[in-house]
# Entry
Amino acid sequence: MDKKILDFYKEFSIFTNPGLYKNSLKKDLPNGLKKIGNLIRRNIIHRTTLAAGNIGTNADKKFGDMTKVPWYRQPEDDILTTASSMLAELYRRDNRGFINNRLEKDKLVVTCRFVAVLMASILKSKGIPCRVRSGNAPYFDTGKLGKVSVDHWINQYWNSKEKRWITFDVDGSWSLNDDLDPYNMLENKFDFPADAWLNIRNGKDNPNRFWNAKPKKGLIVVLWSLFYDFHCLMNDEIIYVHVPEQGLDEHFKKLSEKELKEIDRLAQLMQNNDYNFKKLQNVWNTNRKFRLLRGGLL
# Structure
């Protein structure tokens, strides 16, 4: 692996930057990947878990007793968008920071993207190349939806001994509906959006297999993941509501075949992102369509 690429994924983004907590993450947290992941899980509640209560994957209350969460607590994705803000709030609610016995009332209520950002922040603080990835996960129990692949954010870190990227899923590690190791996942267990986009475009996959939390399904869901993943590969882990113009509903419906083929070319580069790293950076630095975002005040 090119050292420049590994050094790039050691760098913090505006989202993964831990700010003044860098030294604490480096020295005070455990070094084992699973130990770090379990520690994060003990300090965070997913919004769907809070909404469902003590049923389903939380029937055993492994995420805590949801009846002990204040009634006014809502999902905090729109508030705690960066690692530094999440870390500051963890310490504000309990000045011990990351702890194994955090009270339910003091846990953060955030979703998978935010868990992945925290995980990347911790590993980067320890000098380990790490990146956030966005796509779809087919390994969760989706109830009435059946066998669909739901939008999800995970991580990859560089294993220096094995000389490879290892894909892992901290957010889903306690809720899996499949026989897999969440800390060393086979890549074919996760639907990376570059493959999904091109397979759908070539008639090799069903677009309605892909869902997100809106709920929404179809090719546009894969497009959102593709843009998220492209930004993640460039160390820019944008939030859910920010996408390039092509990702807006009204624009997506009007995309020309020329525009779709331009997205195809991006997906083709992303299929082998390390080999095509310089080309992806060139797209990042020159293509306004894929870089400038819309949403909120943008």
Notes: The longest strand covers residues 149-159.
